[in-house]
Amino acid sequence: MVVKKEIRIVNIVATSNLERAIPLVKLAEALPNTEYNPEQFPGLVMRIKDPKTSALIFSSGKIVCAGAKSMVKVKESIVQIIKHLEKIKVKITIKPKFTVQNMVAAGAIGIDLNLNALAVQLPNTEYEPEQFPGLVHKLEGTRATFLLFSNGKIVCTGTRSETELHESVDLLIKGLAKIGYK
After folding, report:
1. To pair with 129 at 20 to 30 A between CA atoms, which of 15, 63, 74, 170?
2. What's the CA gap between 50 and 53, in Å, rounded?
3. Is 60 within 8 Å of 123 (Cβ atoms)?
4. Cβ–Cβ < 8 Å for 62, 15
5. Rounded to an integer, what distance in angstroms lies between the CA atom of residue 52 and that of residue 55?
6. Are the beta carbons of 139 and 130 closer than 8 angstroms?
7. Nearest-CA neighbor of 86 among 7, 149, 23?
8. Beta bridge mates, 63
């Protein structure tokens, strides 16, 4: 059986800093796509329609953006936030940089997996089928954590770049090949 890797990014969480104070009350009053309740949480939640993402915006100018499926979409989301800030006369003079904190990808490796056997054979695993149908595998020497399902579907979280994601999936496949999955 040939392992056929198929993986796509489903969520990127990135942080940025606009390097200036943001008047959250004014922003919440001006935009309908926001939620701000400082008694419960210090950040404003902004839902962006295109690209379909959400952002937490803090008064310090720090931003956490989630929901993008590519690095291009992360940049587009931050551009949208800056446009919304300009509507309330907040001028951002820097070109904000962003840092990927986490990538989540889903896909398949094209082979059926015996999760009971893998729970014994692979290090750093948790498998409790009564609680959850997937096996959790922390890939040694990487930031990647995988959910493995018996039908060969996988979810990978913890990587911070597409390169790191693909390298981690390749390492997983090599590890599976060592214990008899080919």
Report:
1. 170
2. 7
3. no
4. yes
5. 10
6. no
7. 23
8. 16, 57
pLDDT for 2 beyond 90: no
Rounded distance between C-alpha atoms, residue 81 and residue 62, angstroms? 12
Q: Where are the alpha helices (DSSP H) in the chain?
A: 24-30, 71-87, 115-121, 162-178
Domains of the chain: total: 2
Rounded Cα distance, 127 and 179, in Å: 18
Give the integer Cα–Cα distance in Å for 36 and 29. 9
Say if residues 110 and 6 touch (Cβ distance below 8 Å).
Answer: yes
Residues with Cβ within 8 Å of 176's Cβ and at least 6 positions away in sequence, in order, are 3, 109, 111, 113, 118
| Chain segment 32-72, per-residue pLDDT in tens | 999 999 999 999 999 999 999 999 999 999 999 999 999 99
Spatial separation of the C-alpha atoms in residues 63 and 70, rounded to whole Å: 17
In a domain, 43, yes or no: yes
CATH at 25: 3.30.310.10
27 in Cβ contact with 57 (< 8 Å):
yes
Instruction: Decide if 150 contacts 112 (C-beta within 8 A).
Output: yes
Domain boundary, last residue among 95, 117, 137:
95
Rounded Cα distance, 124 and 89, in Å: 51
